[in-house]
Amino acid sequence: MRLRCALLDDFQGIATEVADWSVLADDVEVVSFRTHLDGEDALVEALAGFDIVVTLRERVPFPASVLARLPRLRLLVASGMRNTVIDYAAAEAHGVTVCGTASSSAPPVELTWALLLGLARGLVEEHKAIRAGGPWQSTVGADLHGRRLGLLGLGKIGSRVATIALAFGMRVSAWSQNLTKERADEFGADLAPSKEDLLASSDFVSVHLALSDRTRGLLGPAELALLKPTAYLVNTSRAAIVDQDALLAALHEGRIAGAGIDVFDVEPLPAGHPMRTAPRLLATPHLGYVSRANYETYYGHAVEDITAYLAGAPVRRLP
């Protein structure tokens, strides 16, 4: 009997097109889920008949309580090589092998700049006005040249964002708990004396930190209050790094010029979520990793992970 493999959150219906799943056809039946399975009971019910699950990013948690209710599950493949919502100890206890895939930092870098530029030049407002026959030129763009970009994090993604900022003629500052002057110098950035100094002195702030106990809630009400009223905040990293209620308050009260947000506390966003209607917000539905090349890597490596597992030699094991 063939094994069954579930592909979660295949919103665009592209997972089986960007990789060659035919190499598994004799051994594995592949089933794509194009809608999100919301909640533990719905997830368990849908996946009860599957031996293999391929999950995208960290949208679907696999805690011990879920793994205990999926006795048939034997292989869990997660996109990327880091996943904070899988209980690895529970997976091992239940005999579930967990594998990952490579992931490119290029797509989130590009989306960061799409959001930043969209905010700075009022692209959404002007596009809507053009389409609706509205006013001609209703916004005044915020300049990039000569302005300061503050980066929270200067890792694989943040460093590439810094390089592009310099090409725009921007000044770049960076800060994180472990950032050194040598690392900042390497990418043409000033090492900010503190998080607070970076926030207060930047015209644009972009978040590029991993979510951890140290970064959860890093930007709360006090930190957001330090931003200039003309400043813009971009977050393509993790929602929990920025206090969502504090951000909403800042947007509604006009205490910052705007925000570009790709990550949210609940995904997909419910219809009535306040982020859907917040003013001064340019929002995208977690598109940071969503590019054809990245999908080819994710699903191509998923096929490799499954093939290797069936051969008794799993690759790219997590954690």
Short description:
By secondary structure, the protein is of the alpha/beta class.
Features:
319 residues, alpha/beta, Rossmann fold, 7-stranded parallel sheet, 5-stranded parallel sheet, 12 strands, 31% helix
Q: Within the largest sheet, what's the order of strands?
A: 8-7-6-9-10-11-12
Helix content: 25-40%
For the record, what CATH class of the largest domain applies?
Alpha Beta
Low-confidence segments, given as residue ranges, are none
Estimated radius of gyration: 21 Å
> What's the overall geometry?
globular
Order of helices and strands: EEHEHEHEHHEHEHEHEHEHEEH
Which CATH architecture of the largest domain would you pick? Answer: 3-Layer(aba) Sandwich
N-to-C span: 30 Å
Classification by helices and strands: alpha/beta
Count of runs of 4 or more consecutive helical residues: 11
Number of domains: 2
Q: For the record, what is the CATH homologous superfamily label of the largest domain? A: NAD(P)-binding Rossmann-like Domain
Biggest sheet character: 7 strands, parallel
Q: Any idea of the CATH topology of the largest domain?
A: Rossmann fold
Strand content: 15-25%
Number of strands: 12
